[in-house]
Amino acid sequence: MTAFPHDRLIHGLAAELTPVRRLPPPSLRALAWLAAVAVIAVCLAAFADIDAVRQRLAAAPDLWLAVLGSTLTAVLAAIAAFELSLPDAPRDWAALPLPAALLWVAASGFGCLRVWIAPQTHVAALSEARDCLVFIVALSVPLSALLLVMLRRACPLRPGLTAAVGGLAVAAAAATLLNFFHPYDAAAADLSVHAAAVAAVVAANRALGGRIFAGRIFAAAALPNDVTAAGAGSN
Amino acid sequence: MPQRLQLNVMTLPADGRLLPSPFPCKATLVSRVRDARMVKAGPQNRSTDDLRRGAQMAAAQAGDRAAYEALLRDCVPLIKAVAVRQAVPLDLVDDVVQDVLLTVHRARQTYDPARSFTGWLRIIAERRAIDLLRRVGRQRARELHVPLTFESYADENADPAGRSDYAAGSRRVKEVLATLPERQREAVQLLVLAEQSLAEAAIATRRSKGALKVNLHRALKALRAKFDEKRL
Which residues sit opposite B17 in a β-bridge? Predict the structure, then answer.
């Protein structure tokens, strides 16, 4: 062949070049995903007792802060995940949702004290807490699927981190929407179930999404075959 | 590039002592800041080479194969320089080049022509170089390169004579079988060698099950006698 060692690969890549549509900026793509979440929120709100939710939030300021924290976490984590999905993104983007997540955890943690501060409030029984778990996990499945498909269009070179931050966005969004159907004040057992659900969603996203992204990037097996075939044909 | 390579040579601090430069794998704060600045550089700060590469990549996104091929060729020395700077062993530099070319191909829709192409490429090349070093490190921790093992240690379970013994045995059985009367031979072939059931063999030979059993027993008795005779 030629003296140039990568000629064959370059020729093959050029031969299979197809026009691509440039990706929109990450913040716009994050906004698209958040819009989908908002549509789901509107649909769920139609079934929820909005007045009761409003009264409950007004009565307990720490709940307000927790909802604010989880909403902010969802928005910031979605932006961070789309930024991280670019191949040249710095790792520091992963820190973007952390302050909001801290607010969320701190405000929720304050709810654990409720049993001692106001013993007469109705706290969730374990069976009701299980409903929370089911709700968060079930809502996370379609949200995760949508997010993974959208993130996959880019080329994350840090697959595990990108998928984990995406998982945080999904879990935070699901936890925010849970407030529509949460007619009792959060308490320690309930909150630990929420935390477990969020952790499970993040871990599942990291494992599954990380594998999907890594398979696309690191297992170059599908591409070189095409490329070498194309390169061999041209020789 | 000459500016970059200088990071790896000895630096002379103000107090005059000679100190080795920071380990090349670790990007220094200065180079990180410069990376960030290069990526976000506006068109006025970009070199003509970089602007040309950016334009070629934009053309490649639209499907221009000639521009893409020229661009990838142009990338190879840049990728090699990055790989060497990341302390990739020289025999693995070409692997990094291939990985990066494939990654650029996969990620071509993420390139924004408003940004520096060279900076984009360099960050991808650095990451793929580190990925490769990790992969090789993991592989070396798991695997041993011992090319002479096969020659130095014999396989204790290997039995080169076994195969010929088996061939000789089956030949002897065939010879002895040929000396049996036809009905007995038939019974052995169907019931023992072909592993058919009595019922199947009975249908195939149109004989009764009892007759087949009798023939088999007679055949086995005759075979045993003949083998004993040969062994003696």
Answer: none
Contact, B188 vs B216, CB < 8 A? yes
What 3-state class would DSSP assign to B114? coil
Say if residues B130 and B83 touch (Cβ distance below 8 Å): no
Residues on chain A touching B101 (C-beta within 8 angstroms):
6, 9-10, 13
Residues of B in contact with A20 (CB under 8 A): 61, 108-109
Q: Which of B68, B103, B110, B112 to mutate to test the interface with A (most CBs of A within 10 A)?
A: B110
Cα Rg of chain B, angstroms = 38
Tell me the one-letter amino acid at A121.
Answer: T
Q: Which two tokens stand for residue B53?
A: 């590469």
pLDDT digits (tens, 9 = 90+) for A76-92: 999 999 999 999 889 99
Note down the domain range covering A183. 20-215
Q: Please answer whether residues A175 and A70 qualify as being in contact, where contact means their C-beta atoms are separated by less than 8 angstroms.
A: yes
Q: Tell me the C-alpha distance between A166 and A13, whole Å.
A: 31
Topology, domain B2-142: Rna Polymerase Sigma Factor; Chain: A (1.10.1740)
CATH class of B169-231: mainly alpha
Three-state SS for B11?
strand
Q: What angle do CA A119, A123, A128 make, to 5 degrees?
A: 165
- Name every chain A residue with its beta carbon within 8 A of the beta carbon of B78: none
| A111 min Cα distance to partner chain B (Å) | 42
Largest CA distance in chain B: 109
- Digit-coded pLDDT (tens) for A12-63: 899 989 999 999 999 999 999 999 999 999 998 888 877 888 887 777 777 8
Show the tokens assigned to A215. 């398979």
User: Distance between CA A73 and CA A34 in Å, rounded?
Assistant: 12
Q: Report ipTM (2 d.p.).
A: 0.78
* C-alpha gyration radius of chain A: 22
Contact (Cβ atoms closer than 8 angstroms) between residue B35 and residue B27: yes
**In the A/B pair of chains, how many CB contacts fall below 8 A?**
86
